[in-house]
Amino acid sequence: MNFEKQSVAILGAGNIGCSIAEGLTSAGIFTPDRIWLTRRRVEKLQDYATRGFRVTSDNAEAVQNTDILIVSVEPHQLDEILEELNPAVDKKKHLIISVVSGATIDTIARQLPQGVPISRAMPNTAIAIRESMTCICSESSNPKAIDITKAIFDTVGHTQAIREEQMTSATALCACGIAFFLRAIRAASQGGIEIGFHAHESLAMATQTAKGAASLLAAMKNHPEFEIDRVTTPKGCTISGLNQMEHGGFSSAMIKGILVSSEKAEKLYQKK
Predict the structure, then answer these.
(1) Less CB within 10 Å around the terminal CB: N or C of the chain?
(2) Are residues 87 and 31 in the same domain?
(3) Looking at the structure, do residues 140 and 213 belong to the same domain, yes or no?
(4) Which tens digit of pLDDT belongs to each residue from 221-238?
């Protein structure tokens, strides 16, 4: 899909919004001058302004000058920004992509002019290096919305189209999941320090090992346990370490963490 004649506004350029901007520019589908970034404290976007991004605190101005609107505010800010967008949104021109946790397409649609195409996307911060796992969904009556959303986010990682009722689960597994896997890498690096490596050595080794494990699954398409079996031998050190981790509740803790995050994500947005 060709985006040469289009521009995008990221409304609420916080951590995830700026990560999206970084990913879209590194992918080459939008130049900085065709990306508008909005934020109340616009001074925090000074670095982006210096790099050629269009920066403003005026959401309406950004909407009037763009075609694709990525809403990336905190859930408690959504109603306010939708009220602000309502007069400026044109159903014949704009597509709205929401990355706001917990807010359904129907909830958003009720606060905007009738007929505006809307989709939802749940990327993670790895979008900044074009390695996001982004789950997307849209109204079944509007295939154009999902096609454009997929085309955008395919350039900055991998996408998976899912049912809308699965979006809070995607938030926990993929968006929150970045932090979960980072914490596992941190724990591994601390273990490395315990057994004799310097901190920077241990972190580099743990990071590359985690990257290798993920890449192995992606390339070979095998179940994790298949690859685990390949490195565990009778009475070996690998199985001893794995069993000790399971005695400590490693898998159970990860599963419970994802479950609790999903439950929390479902309650983040509350209509006023």
Answers:
(1) C
(2) yes
(3) no
(4) 999 999 999 999 999 999
114 & 36 share domain: yes
Q: Counting Cβ atoms within 10 Å, is residue 149 exposed (0-12), middle (13-18) or buried (19+)?
A: buried
Q: At what angle do helices 237-247 and 250-265 cross, to 10 degrees?
A: 50
Give the separation between CA 124 and CA 97, rounded to whole angstroms: 15
Indicate which CATH number applies to the domain containing 249. Answer: 1.10.3730.10
Stated pTM of the model: 0.89
Sign of torsion, CA 162 77 54 143?
positive
160 and 181 housed in the same domain: no
pLDDT digits (tens, 9 = 90+) for 101-139: 999 999 999 999 999 999 999 999 999 999 999 999 997
Q: Are residues 101 and 228 in the same domain?
A: no
Residue 13 half-sphere exposure toward CB, CA atoms < 13 A:
32
Q: Which amino acid is at 119?
A: S
By CB atoms closer than 10 A (0-12, 13-18, 19+), residue 262 is: middle
Cα→Cα distances 130→21, 156, 259, 263, Å: 11, 4, 27, 28
Mark out the alpha helices in 101-223 (DSSP H runs). Answer: 105-109, 143-154, 167-170, 177-194, 199-220
**40 lies in some domain:** yes
Give me the phi and psi of 114, to 5 degrees please. Answer: -60, 135
The rounded distance, in Å, linking the Cα atoms of 9 and 70 is: 6
Q: Give the separation between CA 237 and CA 213, rounded to whole angstroms.
A: 18
Query: With contact defined as beta carbons under 8 Å apart, do 175 and 122 qualify?
Result: yes
Q: Closest Cα partner for 32 from 47, 15, 43, 12?
A: 47
CA distances from 72 to 59, 122, 137 (A): 12, 10, 16
